[in-house]
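Submission sheet (multi-component)
Chains listed below:
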Amino acid sequence: MSLNLQIHSEHFTNPLYLDSGRILEPYDITYETYGTLNEDKSNVIVICHALTGSHHAAGMYEGDNKPGWWDALIGSGKAIDTDKYFVICSNVIGSCFGSTGPMSLRHPYHEPYRYKFPVVTIKDMVKAQRILFDRLDIHRVHAIVGGSMGGMQALQFALHYPNFSNKIIALATTHATQPWAIAFNKVAQEAILKDPDFKQGYYDPDIIKEQSLSGMAIGRMAGHISFLSHESMQRKFGREYKRDDGLYELFGKFQVESYLEYNGYNFTKWFDPLTYLYITKAINIFDLSRGYDSLQEAMQKIKAELHLISFSNDMLFKSYEMKELDNVLNEVGNTNHHYLEVESDYGHDAFLVEVEKFDTYIKEVLNG
Amino acid sequence: MSLNLQIHSEHFTNPLYLDSGRILEPYDITYETYGTLNEDKSNVIVICHALTGSHHAAGMYEGDNKPGWWDALIGSGKAIDTDKYFVICSNVIGSCFGSTGPMSLRHPYHEPYRYKFPVVTIKDMVKAQRILFDRLDIHRVHAIVGGSMGGMQALQFALHYPNFSNKIIALATTHATQPWAIAFNKVAQEAILKDPDFKQGYYDPDIIKEQSLSGMAIGRMAGHISFLSHESMQRKFGREYKRDDGLYELFGKFQVESYLEYNGYNFTKWFDPLTYLYITKAINIFDLSRGYDSLQEAMQKIKAELHLISFSNDMLFKSYEMKELDNVLNEVGNTNHHYLEVESDYGHDAFLVEVEKFDTYIKEVLNG
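Outcome: structure written.
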């Protein structure tokens, strides 16, 4: 059977009331669907994307040379089986792939929001998705699955809309962003802000894409360090030096340097710098316990079957952060949650690149 | 008794033949001494400094508000006891605190070297120190002690001048720089190079110090991440937010962000960016086994009593890197070496800030 990849966009004119007290109005949400919605709408699975991800989680468009970011997991006969499930992945509010974000035109002006865009939170992202599903007349789903910032959304869904999803699967994420992750984001934010071509937000997006914003490239390089692990870097690069470079040339490069440079500068071709500031801000201020007396109190609200999956060498969201959440759930007597630590030396990237280590688990959760 | 802190500078007119095949000529070495040289010159201890360190390892000058970088370890009655030992710490070749480096005037021109400065290696740094000691008529020392890049120098001394020092103590270092450390350096190098105020090396050092080179500040922020550990950041900052900042302000800051910003920008007041490029290059290309068929072959040259000290949560030079060296020494039948892993959650910084965890060990090694 085919993936039945479809792309859609919805326009909303009702105000979206944000955590910050600000209002987003109007706004758009771009999303993809895969598979077919069954008659009683009981086969919906929601996928949530990470920092630089998008609604394009699976399949390929004509002319593409690589598929969506979780294609290894989503498709006909795969763990998230589109022969069986109707899968929805939407671009989050604040992002730059079709949903309303800081470079969208601000109504009623014909200028981008830029710094006038409100800070959005993970909760706001989730709320906007919930409104989208309402419009699609979907009021309960089978499962919500996400990794990294997508995992934060999955957990936030579980907390904020306890009856909305039967199952929640959160991977490579945390219950509250820790200083280590905030520090990496800080390097990127500072590098973007201090790049003169960023023009304090008044850059021309087309020129930026063409010329490469070195600040964002540098920030992304730092990001890539946090996505890997000592072990994966060791295996991937070791101390390999570029063949044509001399060891004693000041600008001669190790392979790891070449990798960072390539990925850093390539990133500026497909991601928006102002969006990077806003999404990293949303990640930094994410804390499931906000608004509650404690994480314990918050966790008492959870009703869905909850699956926490961490990766042993994740340097960005350490395995113990998910374990802490598992402990708190135990403490408050939650008997419907599971914690799995996947052995992997890929680091944070494992949730994207080592799908074969956890896809059977996800399949069983979804079908069980 | 007093520390007897003295500062000196020596000028050398003989060529220094570098690993790269290039020549440095003439050159200066600035160094400090503490304590008093005994009659038979048998009480010399050499201290080697790290990336951004200097010859100023202990004591204070008038008007200073903080002492040298290893003051907790070096002084009257301390582990490296200046009542007993004559301690020498020199600024490495390539650095910016008085010894010849890339911003020194290039003979016979009255212009800084800038990119004309040759790439120097850890071995070159060590060689220059050996020449300095020759001039001081010191041909054998009691011990060489260094952490991080200082530890690389200590190991290089042991390998290259096997009869020069009785004891070698290398802390928080590696036998060959790993891709993880190179990656952090890459972020800093790229940030410096892409800063328009760096002017491709043609900056005015005074203006740079005054105005702060944001590129180097950003690079230093990344560096600080690598100096810390998850645990120390957790304890030091947690998720503390700056009191006067609003959580939903785009530029509101967590304490960890404030810390990185302060240390990053402050760094630009006292360190030179071109020097940063050269010293990180020296660190990146450091590999004890270069010029040998294997690390095993290299380690067979070692004659000194060798002490390897690593720190359990060091993220920059992982504990197992020193353990690897220890294993190789065992393999080749070296019976005069010791490996100690210090439990610490301070990360790489531990060799500077948790001296009380290893000073007794160092004292015993020196006096034993």
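Remark: The domain at 6-177+286-367 of chain A is CATH 3.40.50.1820 (Rossmann fold).
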